[in-house]
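Annotated sample (chain length 318).
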Amino acid sequence: MKRKGAFLIIVVTIYLISSYNISALSLNCNNLLKQGSRGEEVKTLQKLLNQKENCNLTTDGIFGKNTKNCVINFQNHNNLQVDGIVGRDTCNALNGTKASIAKTKPNNSIASSNPNTSSTKAYKIYKKSKIKKGVVNVSKANIRKSPSESAKKIGKVSLGKVITILGQEYDWYRIKGNNNKIGYIRADLISKNCIIVDISDQKLIVYTDGAKDWTTNVITGNKGNHDTPIGSYILKPVNIAQDVELVGKDYKSPVDYWMPFITERGIGFHDAKWREEYQYNSGTYQGSGSHGCVNMKHAAAEKLYNSITKDINVIIRK
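Output written by the structure step:
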């Protein structure tokens, strides 16, 4: 009996230790994990996925294709945005903690005070087009008759103009210009991957590889005194951050996603939990705009944040 009792104690102890180790696994949700990530956090992710999805991943700390596919499975099974990226919501779900407010269902009694609980879709995804487009990223660009700086000028295009790309010859794009005239423009003056913010329409449009990817309504700087500056800028992954408090002369605003594109002036994209759903229209910026930043719905800001993996052109146009 003593031997059986001792054996039982050992079994129970092993079980409790293993259970403790399982529950002790936890990800730091301030870190974004995606394909290409490496380190101890990825090892923890792989262990959690093996427990929750039975993926049989090698816990090597390398976020490869198999890990991404397992993340996608987990997202599908937990009603999360399916992108294979471990952002805040996916991280919280893996940790077994409450998801961020963007994923919670609206409570009618408080929905009016918190736009992030709205069931309205935060962004629209476009159908992929085979026709390649490009966006002018300088104030003025010349269209020439042939691919040479000495060739005759046959037209001009301004910042933010979307043009059709017909082909490429060395460092020049062959394009369809004004009045459908065929001409050439330097490739470095055109962006096929960029973020456009249209002040007049209060729309943000993301172009990926020459095609419209997705769009969302935004609120830009208050017209007349805090205008979002027109121009072409670069948004760098090294500058983006989560859980930031934006501090100005007369405000303090905690945000979940911060993506500055004019770092020296503290101007960038971010979510705005204090905004109501109805404010995201073409007129709010004319009297109740931001201090220069581009306000976004929470889910749209999260989507943009998770897509910033390399430097991308930001074009602010009228």
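Annotation: Residues 2-24 form the longest helix (23 residues).
Annotation: Residues 106 and 185 are 49 Å apart (CA to CA).
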